[in-house]
């Protein structure tokens, strides 16, 4: 019995040491992966990297990680317009089946899903900044975007009629969708301004707009989008996503 107790104690101690070694190894790997991702994507700050699943060391031995989560704040995405950028406040991605090379210089995820949050102030960059003629004696421009509820965006217009600014902004509820790499905002209905029903093509030139969001990390792409409290929440996805290399 004494020998059995000693054996059990040894097993428990060795098991504990393995767990400690495993957790130390995964923490080092997370730090290394975060530094590599920062360098590869030219990020202004180090991202969060979490390698899930236990034990980590057996995953390394097999050359594939089951589940890796990545978080990047203030990511500057391309708009495809002469080098202009758009800031993504929060980009979160969950990577499955991450295979890596023997020297750890590259890694590729079989699939990736996640979310990206773009603030309304950033989305405003896609609207026309100057008042535009929409009818004889009437101009308008977008002065604000906000959450309209039920996944809609509220587009606020400032109108001027015969040189006099309309006291209250004209508000339009708009649907937001994703098409390829574009976030598209389209008014559900058209407002009257100055008591006039305006030509649809003229008013939509102001209310409707699109914003390209391209060159996301690893080649992940836009999937779905809806309006939220502080901006639009975009679902992203990808396959064969390159995390490094």
Features:
alpha+beta; 15 strands; DUF2993 domain-containing protein; DUF2993
Give an overview in words:
The protein is built from four helices and 15 strands. It starts with a helix and ends with a strand. It is 24% helix and 50% strand. The strands form three sheets. Strands 5, 6, 7, 8, 9, 10 and 13 form a seven-stranded antiparallel beta sheet that branches. It has a six-stranded antiparallel beta sheet with strand order 1-2-3-4-15-14. With 245 residues, it is an alpha+beta fold. A hairpin with a 3-residue loop joins strand 14 and strand 15. It holds the Pfam family LmeA. This is DUF2993 domain-containing protein. InterPro entries: DUF2993.
Order of helices and strands: HEHEEEHEEEEEEEEHEEE
Task: Note the total helix count.
Answer: 4
So what's the overall shape? elongated
Low-confidence stretches: none
**Quick check: average pLDDT?**
84
Tell me the β content. Answer: over 45%
Computed structural class? alpha+beta
List strands and helices in order, with pairings:
Blueprint: H1 2-41, E1 48-52, H2 56-62, E2 64-78, E3 85-100, E4 107-119, H3 120-123, E5 132-135, E6 138-149, E7 152-161, E8 164-165, E9 170-179, E10 182-187, E11 192-193, E12 196-197, H4 200-207, E13 209-212, E14 221-227, E15 231-244
Antiparallel strand pairs: 1-2, 2-3, 3-4, 4-15, 5-6, 6-7, 7-8, 7-9, 9-10, 10-13, 11-12, 14-15
């Amino acid at each position: 019995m004494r020998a059995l107790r000693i054996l059990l104690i040894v097993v428990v101690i060795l098991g504990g040491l393995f767990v400690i070694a495993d957790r130390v190894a995964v923490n080092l790997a997370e730090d290394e992966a975060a530094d590599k991702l920062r360098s590869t994507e030219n990020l202004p700050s180090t991202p969060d990297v979490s390698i899930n699943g236990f034990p980590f060391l057996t995953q390394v031995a097999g050359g594939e990680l089951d589940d890796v989560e990545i978080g990047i704040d203030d990511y500057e995405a391309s708009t495809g317009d002469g080098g202009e950028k758009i800031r993504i406040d929060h980009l979160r991605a969950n990577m499955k089946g991450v295979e890596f090379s023997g020297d750890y210089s590259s890694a590729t995820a079989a699939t990736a899903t996640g979310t990206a949050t773009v603030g309304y102030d950033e989305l405003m960059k896609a609207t026309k900044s100057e008042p535009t003629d929409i009818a004889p004696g009437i101009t308008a421009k977008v002065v604000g975007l906000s959450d309209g509820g039920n996944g809609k965006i509220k587009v606020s217009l400032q109108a001027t009629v015969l040189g006099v600014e309309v006291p209250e902004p004209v508000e339009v509820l708009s649907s937001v969708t994703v098409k390829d790499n574009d976030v598209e905002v389209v008014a559900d209905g058209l407002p009257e301004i100055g008591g006039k029903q305006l030509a649809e093509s003229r008013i939509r030139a102001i209310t409707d707009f699109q914003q390209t969001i391209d060159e996301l990390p690893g080649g992940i792409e836009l999937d779905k989008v809806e309006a939220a409290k502080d901006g639009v929440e975009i679902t992203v996805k990808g396959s064969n996503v390159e995390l490094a290399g």
